[in-house]
């Protein structure tokens, strides 16, 4: 499992990025965030921090 960001719902607020303990979230050119699934440790901190609930757990 890992977490993914539903890009069409992401508001590019950046609330998820600083709470990631392994720093696997980065901003794309459009400001929306992307999770590096290979580095993600599935802790869920990003999903908890997202004010629009666009981060979800994805089965590989």
TrEMBL record:
Requisite cofactors: [3Fe-4S] cluster; [4Fe-4S] cluster
Gene3D superfamilies cross-referenced by the UniProt entry: 3.30.70.20
4Fe-4S ferredoxin-type domain ranges (all copies): 1-30, 31-60
Sorted UniProt keywords: 4Fe-4S, Electron transport, Iron, Iron-sulfur, Metal-binding, Transport
InterPro entries: 4Fe4S_Fe-S-bd (IPR017896), 4Fe4S_Fe_S_CS (IPR017900), 7Fe_ferredoxin (IPR000813), RnfB_subfamily (IPR050294)
GO molecular function terms listed in the Swiss-Prot or TrEMBL record: 4 iron, 4 sulfur cluster binding; electron transfer activity; metal ion binding
Residues passing through the membrane, by range: none
PANTHER family according to UniProt: FERREDOXIN, OXIDOREDUCTASE
Function of the protein: Ferredoxins are iron-sulfur proteins that transfer electrons in a wide variety of metabolic reactions.
Protein name: Ferredoxin
Organism: Desulfuromonas acetoxidans (strain DSM 684 / 11070)
Species classification: Bacteria, Pseudomonadati, Thermodesulfobacteriota, Desulfuromonadia, Desulfuromonadales
């Amino acid at each position: 499992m890992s977490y993914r960001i539903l890009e069409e719902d992401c508001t590019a607020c950046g609330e998820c990025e600083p709470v990631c303990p392994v720093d696997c979230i980065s901003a794309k050119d459009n400001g929306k965030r992307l999770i590096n699934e290979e580095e993600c440790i599935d802790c869920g901190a990003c999903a908890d921090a997202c004010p629009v609930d666009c981060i979800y757990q994805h089965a590989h």
